[in-house]
């Protein structure tokens, strides 16, 4: 409980319900005492300070009254006074009474708050109070501690220890029973509004209520641990956080999630996080007070304040307050622990704190992150913070699967999050993204379409990105993007924010875990919008690639027989592959492949594939000429790094393609990310091997080609031109079945020479056709490439219902995809007399089953049998990344 003047308790920016869940205790405990022995405190505690309230007045040597009307920092409704009507000693008790204030007073109630600050300050010990708590809706009595010197900074950086709080005791709960819980809580962490707290609620046994009788409330505070007791029963334990370290001594995780603090380093002036004993390792003083109202009490139970509850008879009565020191070790408070079985178990008494996970040190490897593009990333959940909606996938005519977000009457923010509490996919794990290595060139970007604007015409669309569980954040209007445009209803628009600008505004790029897009808080009701292509990436990154073999050996990577004594050969294969590697295995067990090590003839310059980690592959083509004598011998792939300091071996069937080697050429691709996750150091790859399992390969002859390490879609060659004034070499403009001969004709100045097709009475399909054995490999461009052409309809088919088609084939028609022209990105049907562009993403075609590695036919035509009378022209036809 915050009772520090001018500070707000738990509530930040309207997130009231989330705060109530925290401030009310994260875990309610109905204690079963039937099997628990209620022993008193252990021996070794020595009384060092106490007040038994046996005199006739409050002892001014021990207590001071705080006098103010600040509302305790929680929007409370009392003024604290030193008036004897609000606090007095009688019958061996300290009595604190909250009363209605006179008409016209600054606050509607008066009460008292007493503190030992400067009179009795303590570090570690046992602190206990025997008291009967007051009741009533709006009542909040407390016994608690604040730091005397604020060594780590203002609240809550220097901490707060709530020994006991009672909220609205005897007021009706949601199930109609009288409220009876008491609460023990710690406050700590970052400065408001990023403050944290953790604690537990406790219910007295046998239906007892803290407002009916006296009970003893206590904590035992020692170095690194604080324990809470009611009538000597230990019901909650909280501890300092414990870090996990790697072999280099770098903090990489939490062995225990406990408390933490944030403070300014006095030598450097930098803001630091501490997972140590801090802030609960300095001097604290005691406080007793009786608050009226405030954020917490008025928002729960019967809500509001029951005016009749605040009178002379509803007293906070304190029999004694006592402080003990552990004689065994006063400097740490250790050695006098009053514990029981289960006190240190999370399923019993141990409370998990709110410490953030330390940011692992950056490995310096530039990586890109795809948060969402058609398929959800299990590590990044689509998220409605506070509005109660559930973002869902919907189909969009332009983008395919996209995420839909809505904003209702409840203020909220929406987006994507990678924090454990919000990840629902069983395969998902929190994965804060380290964008620091790509600060100079990286961009946070997304595509957005507003379906319906907010009802509030003055609403501003915002982007917010957070790092390390909100430790740093940057919020900007979408008009601050590189594009500088505001969202327009019904249009897909891209918004880009350079990482360098976000870092300059204070964002820690090393642990990005939230990306949000939303109408400004509280102004978004009625908004509906779609998001796609959400990523943090280098748009123009120059990524490395390595070609180990294609048409001939790379002299730095010679072919290699490890142990069998053979000499791999360069031989000629079919027209598509040309010169290839051939490996033969005899009686001696061996493994084969390509090697870069100097001692074995290689160039001695291992390949650093670190920057390809996220999306790169090792890829090769393989054909079995003769199978091994052992018919069921598994075929394997092995990659080594740094003179075999690390290696990964996998069956070829675990490739992306998942196929078994055969007498046909087949492609095998292995994701670098999977290899790295399997233990391979990507920074010094020096051996690639493909072979039947050791000792089972005799008799095998096999060929390998197109061996490379690269990132598909990056650094791809210029798009392959099918037709631009003339048709590509080894390709023709083609009529499948009607016997006509398409021609090259002159068109307008912009297009020059174009291909013209005429459809007669004979059904046919037409387009571009590769010669036998000629194929175009567009696999490297699948992620970003397209098939694109321009078309002009000179005369329409006689059949007005005819539908225009696009068809693409690969591998001598082993795979094919056929679509309507209206399925293109442009979505338009041909119009007589107009040049129109048609674009089909390669990824869409590949997802529909096209093998992009051997494209040999591209067709455009009216549906079979409906095209008579059609005349049309094609130009600027290409495959790849424009």
From TrEMBL:
Transmembrane segments: none annotated. Pfam families: Glyco_hydro_16. It comes from the Bacteria. Signal peptide: none annotated. Residues 41-329 form the GH16 domain. Gene3D superfamilies: 2.60.120.200, Galactose-binding lectin. PANTHER family: GLYCOSIDE HYDROLASE FAMILY 16 PROTEIN (PTHR10963:SF55), GLYCOSYL HYDROLASE-RELATED (PTHR10963). Belongs to the glycosyl hydrolase 16 family. This is Family 16 glycosylhydrolase. The lineage of its organism: Bacteria, Pseudomonadati, Pseudomonadota, Gammaproteobacteria, Alteromonadales.
